[in-house]
Amino acid sequence: MNLAYPYRFDHRGYTAEATDDTHLRDLIEQVLFTSPGERVMLPDFGCGVMQMVFAPNSFELASATQVLIQSGLQRWLGHLLTVSNVSVEADDATLTISVTYQGLTSGQWRMETFQRSVEGAP
């Protein structure tokens, strides 16, 4: 059984569950948008990409962010997936990340896109 992320209840009032593919996507999202230090018991967990939203756009920053994401996913989820490609776009206060990966259990290749906007941004 995989717990749904974010944690919620289903229509029966039980803890919501997620399929294996959805759970893997949820895990990727957690690694991407958790800042190091945010989790008390795992202070190194996460990529900290939300800090990049307000950084000046440049090829170098995009490349560094892609490496940061790939290494974070490999470190925390390497036993569940293989990352093939990461692309990052920052537009004003919105960060869009696309990850192409292969689930090691299913063997299927998938591409997921994650988007976050910074609240309170102009």
Largest sheet: 3 strands, antiparallel
Q: Supply the helix-strand structural class.
A: alpha+beta
Extended strand count: 5
**Radius of gyration over alpha carbons?**
15 Å
Portion of residues in beta strands equals 25-35%
Which runs of at least 5 residues are low in confidence (pLDDT < 50)? none
Mean pLDDT: 86
Number of domains: 1
Give a written overview of the molecule.
Residues 21-102 form the IraD/Gp25-like domain. It comes from Luteibacter rhizovicinus. The chain has one domain (2-117): Nuclear Transport Factor 2, Chain: A, CATH 3.10.450. It starts with a strand and ends in a 5-residue tail after the last strand. Strands 3-4-5 form a three-stranded antiparallel β-sheet, covered by helices on one side. The protein is 27% helix and 28% strand. Helix 1 packs across helix 2. The chain has 122 residues and is α+β, with helices and mostly antiparallel strands. The chain is built from two helices and five strands. The mean pLDDT is 86.
Index terms:
122 residues, alpha+beta, Nuclear Transport Factor 2, Chain: A, three-stranded antiparallel sheet, two-stranded antiparallel ribbon
Short description:
With 122 residues, this protein is of the alpha+beta class. It has helices at 20-33, 59-77, and strands at 2-3, 17-18, 81-91, 94-103, 109-117.
Write the layout of secondary structure elements.
Elements: E1 2-3, E2 17-18, H1 20-33, H2 59-77, E3 81-91, E4 94-103, E5 109-117
Antiparallel strand pairs: 1-2, 3-4, 4-5
